[in-house]
Nitrate ABC transporter ATP-binding protein
Amino acid sequence: MTLLAKQNAIHIEQLRKSYSEPSVGDVHYIIKDVDLVIKGGEFFILLGPSGCGKSTLLNMIAGFVSKSGGNLRVNDVEVNKPGRDRAVVFQQADSSLFPWLTVRQNVEFGLRMKKTPKEEQRLISDRYIRLVGLTGHEEKFPKELSGGMKQRVQLARVLANDPAILLMDEPFGALDAMTRRTMQKELVNIWRETHKTVIFVTHDIQEALLLGERIGIMSVGPSSNITDIYDNSLSYPRDVASQQFYNLYNTIQGHFEE
């Protein structure tokens, strides 16, 4: 593994998350015995049906949810709480943006909390507002933005804080098809420019194939785990009409039909 791949790598071994049934004392597993290594700088997809534990696993990596057993390390440090090296982009931007702040103020919020000099705040916010395609909208408030634009603000704010790892929980699931495709392309461009580690949760096979370098398939819950990992070596930007895309789509679709 190269130095770049070792930095910000995630190592998961026999990871479990359970809850107890108080009336009978039984232990029920949401996820059980998950083994996974994600290289630094990799775009990794967690793909599976709704309710299979994808978001639970993502939140465990974020440090929001504690593990019931196993090991979970980022940069060889065991995860037991949230950290600045990891940031989550949620499906609903409305719940994470401050409605009383403008686009620029939202993007600069974390920088202000870190007491970053104002001149530097402006340079950083300018960069990421440009990167997500919101130049010219800096002084608008969230209520004046479309759903796709709000997601761009959320992404710009996360990137402005410069986390090494982006954890994305179906961030485009609530968008219309055309906006979703645009955001997918933007995300790939941002990832290729910033070289961050990205873990992206989805239940959409096409989205997984458009974005990810590797795709981890999660089984139906309860006691879900990662059953298969598919390598996706298609070159970017990916063509959904290509024969290679079609073949890989059918392979993964067949996995779910089984």
Remarks:
- Residues 98-162 form one domain.
